[in-house]
Design brief:
Layout lengths: L7 H14 L4 E6 L21 E8 L2 H8 L4 H28 L4 E4 L22 H8 L3 E2 L5 E2 L7 E8 L21 H4 L6 E11 L2 E8 L3 H7 L28 H12 L27 H5 L4 H12 L3 E4 L5 E4 L1 H9 L3 H4 L7
Antiparallel strand pairs: 1-2, 2-6, 3-6, 4-5, 7-8, 9-10
Length: 357
């Protein structure tokens, strides 16, 4: 097989340049050695036999579209940007993998999202990724793990999508970012922006890779994220604002109550009109229906500038609550107007959005 002989340094620089030329804001490199001792989702050979290294990269989301999404002024623009940036990240990973393969280094471009291992005890429903973009990103210096567990980049905060390319090439690893430069001051706006409160306020999770520890707040039941980020419900605890979901089913305090809450909200969601301003297909979506981006607030709030974080949270929390019209369109209105809208519906229609007592 043809192989273009290059030094580790030159080959690494070539891969980094390839990604930056296509818009990556951050790029890093991990090796089997720097990932040693990590969780199963850092096993590079799971996706590529004889893998030696991986290139991690981040592509920023459109900030102007984020503002309008958080303010609940424009749902479709950010949703479209998020979906298509995800496809771009996957395509870019495949492109670099193919390029490396063509010059003699078999490689694999990892999908940006929604690919899960089928050989876990829970199968694909356990939502364990083939490769963890997050762990590769923090170990290679693409970003830090924030309070929420999202990867925070120095340039764009957490408002990025991550990609990875696994390769048989032996590359030069890059170091994690210095902990003392990490901008997360535990402002907890990510927690305040999460109506499901996925993050545990006190307990942390720690992952060790290559002898280095990386910590973030422990995730509570993932049914919390299923319930809210799935678009099935999204009203804040005091009812003053919501995600882009028109659902207002209860969000339990106790993790053990979430399975029942999820079943109730999903059954109602299946009877609602489709939101027809975009969306995406998820292999675990109930009824094989298209899903919509209605949340992601913990990611979109997080920014290196604290004033910007506060601004984004204010946009979110003052943007009203979302209702749905019979044609499927959604609109943000003031909380009292939303209540009037719901009370004008008959019981069958109301039951699509809230529990009727």
């Amino acid at each position: 097989m043809f192989k273009k002989e290059m030094s580790k340094e030159d080959l690494t620089q070539l891969a980094v340049t390839y990604l930056k030329e296509q818009g990556a804001c951050e790029v890093g490199v991990v090796t089997k050695e720097t990932l040693a001792g990590g969780p199963p989702s850092t096993d590079l050979e799971y996706v590529l036999q004889d893998a030696e290294s991986a290139i991690s990269f981040a592509i920023p989301l459109d900030e102007q579209k984020i503002y309008k999404f958080l303010a609940k002024e424009d749902h479709a623009a950010h949703q479209d940007d998020n979906v298509h940036t995800g496809f771009f990240v996957t395509g870019l990973a495949v492109g670099l993998a193919s390029y490396l393969d063509q010059i003699g280094y078999p490689s694999h471009g990892v999908d940006s999202n929604v690919v899960y291992r089928k050989d876990t005890p829970g199968g694909a429903r356990a939502f364990m990724p083939d490769i963890s973009h997050r762990y590769l990103a923090v170990r290679s210096g693409v970003g830090w793990l924030g309070f929420s567990g999202n990867v925070m980049t120095p340039s764009h905060g957490a408002s990025v999508l991550l990609g990875s390319v696994v390769t048989t090439a032996e590359l030069m690893p890059t170091d994690p970012l210095p902990e003392e430069k990490k901008y997360c001051d535990e402002c907890r706006l990510c927690y305040a922006a999460c109506t499901s409160h996925l993050m545990d306020k006190e307990e942390q999770s720690t992952v060790t890779m290559g002898g280095i520890d990386f910590s973030y707040q422990k995730r509570r039941s993932y049914h919390r994220c299923d319930l809210v980020c799935g678009g099935f419900t999204g009203l804040s605890k005091k009812g003053r604002w919501s995600t882009w979901s028109p659902g207002r089913f209860p969000i339990p305090e106790d993790d053990h109550e979430f399975r029942g809450a999820l079943i109730e909200a999903v059954q109602a969601w299946l009877t609602r009109p489709s939101i027809d301003d975009g969306g995406f297909r998820h292999p675990q979506a109930p009824g094989m229906r298209r899903l919509n981006f209605t949340c992601g607030n913990c990611q979109l709030i997080c920014h290196p500038d604290k004033n910007e974080r506060n601004r984004r949270f204010k946009l979110l929390s003052s943007g009203g609550v979302v209702i749905q019209h019979p044609d499927g369109s959604i609109e943000a209105v003031k909380p009292d107007k939303a209540r009037e809208h719901l009370e004008a519906l008959d019981d069958e229609q109301r039951s699509m959005y809230e529990r009727i007592i």
